[in-house]
Structure formats: structure tokens, C-alpha cells
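Appendix B. Extra example for self-study. Work through it before the problem class; the solution is given directly after the inputs so you can check yourself.
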Amino acid sequence: MHMETGALSQARLARQFARVRAQTSALASNLSAEDCALQSMPDASPLKWHLAHTTWFFETFVLECFARNHAPFHPSYRYLFNSYYNAIGEQYPRGQRGLLSRPALDDILRYREHVNVRVAELVARQALSADALAILELGLHHEQQHQELMLTDFKHLLSLNPLYPVYREAVPGAPAAATRLNWRAFEGGLADFGHEGADFAFDNEGPRHKHYLADFELANRPVTNGEYLAFVEDGGYRRPELWLSDGWVAVTSQSWRAPGCWREREGARFEFTLSGLQPLDAARPVTHVSHFEADAYARWASARLPTEFEWERAAADVPLQGHFVESGELHPRASPDAPLAALFGDVWEWTQSDYAAYPGYRPAAGAVGEYNGKFMSNQYVLRGGSCATPRSHIRVTYRNFFPSGARWQFSGIRLARGREPAERGD
Amino acid sequence: MHMETGALSQARLARQFARVRAQTSALASNLSAEDCALQSMPDASPLKWHLAHTTWFFETFVLECFARNHAPFHPSYRYLFNSYYNAIGEQYPRGQRGLLSRPALDDILRYREHVNVRVAELVARQALSADALAILELGLHHEQQHQELMLTDFKHLLSLNPLYPVYREAVPGAPAAATRLNWRAFEGGLADFGHEGADFAFDNEGPRHKHYLADFELANRPVTNGEYLAFVEDGGYRRPELWLSDGWVAVTSQSWRAPGCWREREGARFEFTLSGLQPLDAARPVTHVSHFEADAYARWASARLPTEFEWERAAADVPLQGHFVESGELHPRASPDAPLAALFGDVWEWTQSDYAAYPGYRPAAGAVGEYNGKFMSNQYVLRGGSCATPRSHIRVTYRNFFPSGARWQFSGIRLARGREPAERGD
Amino acid sequence: MHMETGALSQARLARQFARVRAQTSALASNLSAEDCALQSMPDASPLKWHLAHTTWFFETFVLECFARNHAPFHPSYRYLFNSYYNAIGEQYPRGQRGLLSRPALDDILRYREHVNVRVAELVARQALSADALAILELGLHHEQQHQELMLTDFKHLLSLNPLYPVYREAVPGAPAAATRLNWRAFEGGLADFGHEGADFAFDNEGPRHKHYLADFELANRPVTNGEYLAFVEDGGYRRPELWLSDGWVAVTSQSWRAPGCWREREGARFEFTLSGLQPLDAARPVTHVSHFEADAYARWASARLPTEFEWERAAADVPLQGHFVESGELHPRASPDAPLAALFGDVWEWTQSDYAAYPGYRPAAGAVGEYNGKFMSNQYVLRGGSCATPRSHIRVTYRNFFPSGARWQFSGIRLARGREPAERGD
Amino acid sequence: MHMETGALSQARLARQFARVRAQTSALASNLSAEDCALQSMPDASPLKWHLAHTTWFFETFVLECFARNHAPFHPSYRYLFNSYYNAIGEQYPRGQRGLLSRPALDDILRYREHVNVRVAELVARQALSADALAILELGLHHEQQHQELMLTDFKHLLSLNPLYPVYREAVPGAPAAATRLNWRAFEGGLADFGHEGADFAFDNEGPRHKHYLADFELANRPVTNGEYLAFVEDGGYRRPELWLSDGWVAVTSQSWRAPGCWREREGARFEFTLSGLQPLDAARPVTHVSHFEADAYARWASARLPTEFEWERAAADVPLQGHFVESGELHPRASPDAPLAALFGDVWEWTQSDYAAYPGYRPAAGAVGEYNGKFMSNQYVLRGGSCATPRSHIRVTYRNFFPSGARWQFSGIRLARGREPAERGD
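Solution. C-alpha cells for the complete assembly:
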């Protein structure tokens, strides 16, 4: 799946394996079996399924392939917890993952422990081939992706509950004021983009290739709730001229009136968060907006979304720091005053680039070739990670992707615009 | 809702309340929180919802109306656990009952206990009005209906699980042979039907009224799996001429090939039961058939379904005995050799009668008037109770009702036919 | 299909054949090919299809069976114009009848002429068997049914056109005042219902059989637009307590606010008719109401719908006169002042009786056995014919049937109520 | 809408107006009113609607804006025939265009004539502004687009008719053999793409901008039916590994087994054409394939689809010649033996490029700004025109676009591949 063999030693991988697996389990540790069993929509999965599927990944691609005398933990799990790998076989239907009260959460936790032990034994007892190490490393990055999905899928489930439950208590903190929006200019030209080198990356991040950019400007920070509220109050959701045609269909057919987690109560605006319903904070980045909404907002603001290459160009010079899942505050924070704030972390930033193969792209051989490539259709690229992304998971070349209408991720907006000397004389 | 004040004394009602409420809780006592939280389809509800809604009934119709200084257990429960009583207010959408991980099962069990205590106090401390006693008694029959639905809804959920889980271990027993099918003849004439008297009955069972019957014959027992298998193997599901037009649409659009719980594995036939997957037992009554299937089978067998009046005429002379939920064997048993076996218990028997108001029918005043009457449209009457019905819940005048396509209940078939002297000379 | 051999002589049948066939063609004679080709919904058919299907009936059931050396007019018509006779073979899908620009209307008119000539030859040249005469007579009644459907299907199509086209110019006439609503009382008792004798009837009208009625009262005329408007203005479409549960689902999911052809323009109420948009006439019977609306109106009016037996009992003593299609005024008229006005003609009257087999019912042998019996499920009986029914088509035992939500027929409401001496002292 | 004022003189535009308008009418001249009224699916429109909408374009954007004292031809047409211009007002729902038997075809032809006369008068009597001339020219290109849609929409309608009607008799001709597939190599580098200059182009073709290409190779001609048949027979529609994930959903949910117009009869393969059903010709280009099918075929053939920039780079040096609608043969022809055959005409060639804005793109001001830009979402670019495209309508920079699943256009496949010296040693 990944184009390059990761540079990690076997010992270091073993330690990472233990750490990442424990982080996953910790996400569900304060939840009940019923919290972990429900599915809010076909696009989201029960937490129990995530716990099992990430384990299935190691059992199927590591233990089955590289461990001697491996016996399946359970004869049905190969089918039940296969997400979409046709090369492995049939899959239990995605939309029915919420119909499985059995295997119980406890069974799944035993499954996790069993596979953890076997993988640890495998790594401890024999020198693994480069292929085996590569798939093991891939499994860890795969698991980190599911860590983020566990938070967003569970947030979506809770957001449908009229009781507005709390997943984790809010982190207290002084409210921040929004910083001023301004523009940072970039010179265009021919440059190289995409991943290269020995470090791990998904196959869709490469190969590194040339791409030409015109001059452009990028906003210094993501769009805030306060700015987005002005769009809403200016009739943003009632004016078809601001929307892509498909976006307007989404607005009208789904009765969108605001971002996915905004709520109104007796005239006041609130935002549903993983810490329950909170007053809408004007200074924080707007999140849970679809690509359609991001695009419409940008048009209203006389700007546009950046391309993924513009984003990568800008991010290449910025240290990979930000507000990630490790902070424990599972909600985007107000951006600090900086030339290019919050490119990493807080909210994934929608780009105008469709999720397509880079020139020369080749999926990996075998079943893991299905990991990324087959989704290169009708999706758009998001960049930079969010407050639910593990810090060690993100890269400047990292390409996340979702369909235009998806809004249950921590997705937000950074504006871009062309740079026309005549117009921007100042 | 019920037309007559029940004849039970307040003290006896108090004892029944304690018993029925305990029976409900016992049904879920061996299940996990995740077992109780899932919803398999909009027509079925999570067990947790049943546990809460039956409690809501007593809180809303008894405590709110008759207890001094009643304070709601939780401000949202009035909305969350209202099934369909518009007079009480808005209802949480039926199809989303499976999206509520909170309130947790433990919260619902506390809610049950709280209301149990309050109702017990109410009954112990003051002499209740006839109205209060009547609604309390209604609540117990309501709760018994939900006891049966808990079993059928949960069976439906488990039936979708590829692991075929066991709810309760099978009751061991010697396999019985099917008894011979024969016909019992009844004289027609004008007679009285429906409930009358001081004992409890639902409002839809009355008023007692005259109805004319022609001579008819009734089968001595329900159709067996073995008989139904002959229909299947004779192309029953491939021959449109055997089906009502809407039934044929159901067959083709839902790909029906056999009753709802039949399964095939490597050429052998099995039946999914609350004790897991079992070899199909030819001697037991066929169950989980829709009205459409019952009607098609009857046509294939050169017979027809009885009307509800024919059924009631035949049952009027039969002792109210049979195989009910108290046996612990949650599956229909092979019928004994008797002139009219298994009219009560084992399987609900589809009639050809649509579920309509008896002449002079009037729903009760107030919100409980919504209990029965508003469903008198596009449903068919079933009679006699099943292996999941409490013995004390059923009556000869009892009218159950479901739409033509429903097949997740313990519904079966008893054949009828006209009696034409020339044809039936014996 | 019909139980009895019609009493008509072969010569008289031949004359009727010519007359009925010409009447059908005349209905479309002022319409364009495009008027005749469109389908407004799966339940309705293009006029061209009606013209072809009624011809197909004679070709398939008369010429194919009884004419020597019959060659099909076109090899595909057997398939294209078969409505629902599985015994004849596969059918072109109902919902796609509006996708056939070919065969052209002119081709269909040639088809009609061809079959007319062949049937006339057959009848002229040989003495037909009783079976042949019976199916020929059935074909004429079948064709008359389609004459009414042509008018209602076409009205439905035009009603969706924002231009509100006129099919036939309105018949001028002085506006009538509504007559006073009063009640006519009937004694109950055991009586005979259904068709008997040598005259033609559909198989579903028999056999004649005994049925017991309690005393009842019937309104002297159908409910008027003015009366129904009072229901609308009293919040009839906003009050769930007035509706059957399924009816309320229809109201909310389909946004019903008034009968199917009522329109509002700048605060004034209009009714779409086959003569275009007309001011709502308070004196005329309300029409294009579903069974759900008829039932809700009756509940609001503290009454109920009659059973089909009550209706037949009342109609048995009334001369078969009324306002039928022959008048040329294709809209119900204000009812005259009479003890039982407009039982026949004007609007079909919804009953509370589900469309079910009479005791002893047997469908005819062969393909025409599919004519009626297989629809005895989830439909309700309407009685009496409408302003779009041919006078010679209706009978006191005639049973029309449609699902509860259907409202594109000329369906209306006649109220009934029980008769309780204490309450009704007069 | 277009970025540049066209270079045509007013007199030349007047002549083109007359010619293009006449060509549109001629397409329907041999069809009946019913042929012109039907709608096969929401994506396609009745021919009558196309005839009216193209006229509406001139009435709304030319006569209303630039003619003195313009009175609307009909008060409802502004609403009825507005396709998707929200700035003009509400639109009659797209999916219901097939429900309008009125206005009649004759009315629409009168509408065309009326607007033709008024536009001709306008152009004859006054010197028009550059804006007026530009919108008039745009209207002609708009009308040419609809000319092609009339053929493809009507072909789709006929393809659903079991009679397989003929729109235009087939052009006789000697069958051609397929030419050999070979590859033409292109050097990469930074180059300019998109429209520039005074000639007409749609706004989405500009602005001209730089884009970098790696070396690549392009097939000398489109994929043939024979080649595609090999894919089908190799299990192409049964092997998920060949498909994008969304493509595989389309294959399974829509039961795709072959291109949209292929039919099987008694074991032989046919293709439905505008000349009726014809034996499948292995030498002709495959057509009526979706983007999903084009992508899957390319993967099976160890190649890929070209980007739109690769296509434009190759086409820039090729004369704009090919098989267009003027030939009268409304079906793609076998490609001649040429270094780069059939880039223009025959079949639109799917590219792997999503339909997105070029850098610096700005839609035109006003309502015509809705012409192109708002569809830049979830669609893919096709290049080169087809056998149904007018010769004068196509350009090397022309960008057609359709969603991934669309296959009722004359869409085909040209393969591309990267150029890797090591692998391609010749």
C-alpha cells in the first residue's frame, strides 16, 4: 500500500504497535457496551466495529501471512470485520454494522488482546521481512485513521440524541478573541509535490511529481464561527447563486440551515461538541461543514478554496505543530495570531482538488492495493489534520478525502485567492 | 380504552402489577446492554425502549393523572418514550429508537424501579377511582403485549446476525410426529360475537354484536412445516396464480423464498429459533409467515383462511389451554391429536378478516382512545395467541392485528373451507 | 369471470360491441397524440394504452380463443398491452407505459379498427358458444371501466400541468344551492346481499348471501364542498386525532391540505375540473378525496362511513338514476332535494368495508380469473358510480375498489351513523 | 458566459442564427407529437422541451434585454422552459418535463417561429451592442449543445422501447476492419492550455494557463467494440478489482453487464442505434460507456484514461476533422488508419480529469454565469465531440462534462499510459 518501506526498526515498530493499540482501546474505555454498538448512519460505524476491524487488519494481513500455524480467532470474523477488501472475500454489509449485538464488546476486547499478544510474539521471536514490517507499519497508520473515525462517528451518534450527551468533559480555558483575517502571498512556479523518501506515507501521497502553480494568496487562519455566522445571517443558505448546483440540491433536500453541529434554542446559538452542547464560540474555527458549504462560503467571501498543491506549497515551510488529539480537547481552538496559523490540526481544510491519482501512481500489489486507489472518484481532498488526529499520523503530503456532502468530520475552511498585481496594489 | 371496568379489586391489581412488571424485566435479565439497545427495523424496537415505554405508560397515565405532587422522573422521557399518543405530544421518531445509547440500560432499569415504587405507594395509600383502576389494569395488559413484542423484536434482531445467537437454550424433548389433518364441521346461523361483561377486554373486542355465518369447516390443527415445505417445493413462491396481487409484489420485490426464519445450509433446511439455528422440524406448525403467504398457501391447498367470526365460533367451545410463554419453550410445538388442537397458543392464526370496527364501536375518551382504533386500516386480524403470549393475556375475543406483509411475529395458518352438502357427502 | 351467463342475445351483443367501442374512441377524439401518450404516475395509464389494452382484451380472450385462423395484429402487442394477466404471460412494466412513443396513436387506432372488424365478422358469421358470448360481454364491461379510467387518468395528468388545460368546455347552468343535510333511518335485520340472476355482473358481486345489519341511518346526500371546507378551516388537516394512523402518515408525508383538485390562488379557492380551473362551488359534492380523508371527515362530523351492506340496503329501493357520463358534464352536480339523492352517479361513495370475497366466492377459471379476485387485499369498496361512469355500467351490487390513499377518482363521501333510540328521539 | 466577444459580424451572426435554428427544427421534423413529448428519465428531456427551451434562451436573454417593447409570447413560458437559471426565477421541475401534453408541439413550433422573427427583426433593424451580440452568439452555441442532446435523449427513449424503433435509416456502407492499436508518444513539459483569443469559447475553456505534463503516450484510436467485448468476456463486469469502488456499486446496483446499448438475442450480440437494432460491429468504437466503465476497461488493459491536458496537447497538432452530425450517419464509424485517428467526432472521449475551474476562472456576470460554473463538482471531462456534434460546435479546448455514471451520451474510450524509458525500450 505505501510506496516506500518505512524506516522503522523492528523493535521500534513493536513499541509503536503496543502504544497505538492501547490508544485505540483507551478511546472506548469510558463507554458502555451500548455506546459501542450503535450505528448512526451507513457512513459511520459502531465503535465496536472499529475495535474489531483494526484488529482484523493485523490478523488478516500480518498473522495470516507471516505467523506460523496461525489459527483464526473466530471463523466468522474474517467476514464480519472485513471493511471493503474484495480480494479477501465477501463483506458483511456496511449499513448493517449496527445490527450486531453479538459478538459482544467483551468478545471484541478479547479479540484485540489475543491479536495483540500474537503480533507481539511474532515480532519478538523472528526477524520479519521488509514486506511484513511494511504491512505492520501500515496497520498502525490504518489504526490511527480509525482512531479519528471513532471520535467523529461517535460524535455523530451523540449529536442525534436529544439528551446531547457528553463524551469527555470540556477543557476549561479562557475564551480567546478571534484574530484578524489577512492574506499571505506566495509566488507561483513549477515545483515538486507529493511524498518521497524512506519515511512512511500512504501510496496516494506519491509519486513526487512536478506541478505548476500561479501566484496565489492564502488566509492566515481558518474561517471562524463568527465569520460563518455572518454568511448564515446574510441568507447564505437561501441564495442559490452562492452554491454549486449539487450543493443547492443538498441544501434544499436535506434542509441545511447551518453547519452540522450548530443548534438553536430559544433564539440562542449553540454548538454540539464531544463535551455536549456549548454556546457557539465566535472565535473558534467553523467545523462540520461539507465541501459544498466550504465552497459556497468562499464564493460569498469573494474568495475560493485552495488547491491541494497551494496548500502543500504553503505548508512545506511551516513546522508540523498544532492542536491534535493528544491535547484532550476534542474541539478546534481559536487560532493564534501567526502568519499561517493552524495549518496542521484543529480542522481538516477542504481543498478544491478532487481526489485523483498523481501522475505515475500505482496502487500496491495484493489486497492492500484496495486501501486508497479505488476511492479516487467523486471525492475531494482535505489537508492538515484536525483536533481528532494523532500528531504522529499527519504529514505535509497527507491527503484525506471525503465526498462533497460529508460533514461529520472535523472539516473546516481556509480561504485562498489569486494574486493579481493590478487588483492588489497594497 | 377498555369498554368495561375490570372486576379486579385494588389489592389484586397491586399484586398483578408487581408480578407483570417483574416478568417484563426478567425477559431482559440475561441480556447485555448492547443486546437491549439495537433496533433491527423501524417496525421493531430495542428492548430498552420496551422497558422504558411500558414504564412511561404508568407514569403518564397513572402517576401524572392520579398521584399527588408527581414529578417527572426525567424531563425528556415524556417525549422519548411516547410511542404514538398524539394527545400526549410529539414523539421521538420510531425509526430512530436504535440511535439512543443514552439513557443507558441501567438508567432505564432505575426508571422502572422508581415508577414501580411510586405506583405501589399510590395503590397502597389511597382508594383509587374506577377510572384510575381501569387505566392501571389497562397498563398491565399493555405491558403483556410488549412482553410478546420484546421476544419477537429480539428474535428478529438475532435472525439478522450471521452468528445465529441463542437467546434461551432449547428445551429438550422427544420429537413428535405430525398428526393427520382433518376437518371439523360447524353449523352456520346468526350468533353473537365480541366481548361482553365485566372482565377486562380491549375496546376493539366489543361491542358484542350479531353476525351471520354460513356453514363452514375448520382444520383440526395449524399447518405444519412439513405441509408448508410441500408448497415451497411445488413452486409456491414462483407461481403468481397462487398469490394476491400485492402478495406477488412482496414475493418478487423482497425475494421471498420461504418463511421468514427458514434457512438453507448445504442443501439442508433449518429454522432460526430463539434457541438458535435448529433443523427444520416437519411436525411443528409453520410460523413467521405473512398474511400473503398464509393466503397463498390456503389457495394452493384448495382451502381458504377462516374469518375471525368463524374462528371465534369454533373457539367459543374450546377450553382456553395451550402452549404459552410460561412453558419456557419459545417455539411452537407439534400439535396434539385433538378435534381442535392448538387454537390457543403456539402460533397466532391469520384470518381473512380485515381489522375493522365492530358495529357500534367507540374508542375510549382521552389519549388512550388512540390505543387501538386508529390502526383500523390495512391490517388483518390474528387470533388465539402464540408460544410468546402470556397465558393470562389471551381471550376468545382477543383481536391481534398486523399488516399483510408482516412476518416477524409467531404467525401461522389454520385452514378453513365452505361446507357444501353436495360436495361433502360424508 | 362473471358468474352467470349474460342474458343478451348474440345480435344485441354485436350492437353493444359497436356502440361501446365507438364510445371509447370518442373520448380521445378531440385529443392530440401527445395528450394520449403521457403517463402521470404508475397508477394511471396513457390514453393510448387504454385504447390498446381494451382492444387487446378482445383480441386475446375472444379472437385468439374463438376465431379460426386468427393471426396476431402485431407480435409484440400481446406483451405490450397485457395489464396484469400472468396466465397470458409477462407484462410490459406498468410504470413505463408512458415511455412508448411507438406504436403511434395512429397505429393503435388501426389496431382498434382491425379488431373491431374481426370481432364483428366473428359474431356475424357463426353462432358463438355461451363461453364466447360471456367473454365478449365481459369485454364490454371491462371497456366501460376503462372509459371511466381514461377520464380520471387524463384529469390527473392535466391537474399537474400549470396551464390547467380544458378537456371539455364547462356545461353552463345556473348555480344550485346546497340542500339541507338530514338523515334517513333504516331498520336492521338479516337480509340478502350481492348479485343473483341471469344479468351480467362481475364475479366479485356474488354469490348472493345473508348478512346481518343493525339499525342505521344514512345521510340524504353526499358531503358538499362547503361542508368539507368547514372541516379544512377547522384544522382538519392539522389534527392527528381525526385521522387513522396511516392516514396521518399520508397527510404529513404528502403534505395534503385539501382534496386532490382544490387549488388556492391569491386567497381564493378553486377546483380543477375537466373544464379547467373553476371557482370552488360550495353546493357540489366534494370529490377526489381518499378513503383516509373520507374517514377523517366523518369522524370530525361525529358520524362514520357506511358499510357496503348498509349502502346496498339503502340503494335497493332507489331507482337507478343519476348524473352519469352521458350528460357530458364531467363533474359532480349539486344534489337535488330528495330523501336519498345521488346514490348513483356524481361521486363514488367510499364505504368502510374492505374489499373482500363474499362467502362462497370463487374466481372464474382461466386467465380472466385474475380480473378481480387477486386484488382483494388492502383496498376499500366504493359504491354507486360517478359522473364519469356510463349509465349502463352501474348496478346496485357493483363493487368498485381502491387503496386508502387513492384520490384521483371521482370519489366522495356519504355519512352514516348508528341508530340509538335513546339518542335519536324523533 | 463566454470570456471573449465573438469576432462575428452582426450580419454573419444573423445568417448563423437562421441556419442553426433551422437545423434544430429539422431534427424533429420527421417525428410525431408523441415522439416529442415523452421523457425517459429525469436526466433527459422531451424533444419538445428542447425546442422550447432553446427558444426561451433567446427570448429571455436577447429579446427581453435588448428588444424594445418586448411582450412575452406566453406568460407561463418563462417558468416552464427555464432549465436551471435561478437568477431568472423558479423552474418547472426537471423530472416532470414529460408530464406536459400542453403546450402542444404545434404551440412550441409557433413559439419558435415567433422568436425567430423577432430576433431577425432585432438584428436587421438596429446595431446591437457587443453585449447583445455576445449573448446572441452564446445562444447559438447553446442551441447546438441541445441539438446533440436531442439526439441522445431521444435515442435513450427509443432504447427503452421493446420495438427498437428507427429514428433515421442506416447509412449503407461496406463494413470496415478495425485498425491495429498502437501508441503515439508525447514529450512532457510546461505548456499552455485552454482557450485564448477573439473566437467564441465557453467561459469554462479559459483562461489560458500553464500546466506541466510528464511524458505520456496515447492510443492511435478509440477502443473498439471488439476490444471491449474481450473485456466483457474476460469477466470485466464480474471482477471488483477492476473497478473504482463507486463504479462497482453502479455495476451491482444497476446490473450492468455491457455498454448501455448492447443487447443480446438468442446468443447473438446487437447494438441499439438511431437506426434501430444492428448486429454489434466489432470494428466500430465502443460507445455509451460510463466513466466508470471507461476507467475499468483501461485498468483491465493495463493502461489509464488520459488527462484532459494530455488530450489537448495531442489534439493541438491535429486538424479539426472527423465524423460529425452533418454526415447523417448517427453512429460512430470504424477509425481509419492514422497516427491519431478520430480525436474529433465519432465518440466523446472520457478523460480522468474532473471538471474543475481553470486557475483564474471567473463566471460571466448575470444569469448566464450559471451556464457552466455551478456544475464544477462531481463530473468528469470529455473531449473531442461525437457523431452527434455539429462540426462548427467543437474546438480543441472544448470541455464537455458528465457524472461518472452517465452513459446515454456517445461517450467512448481512448487509452493513455505513462512513458517510462526503461519499460518502453523501443
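Self-check: The two ends of chain D are 47 Å apart (CA to CA). If your reasoning did not lead you there, revisit section 3.
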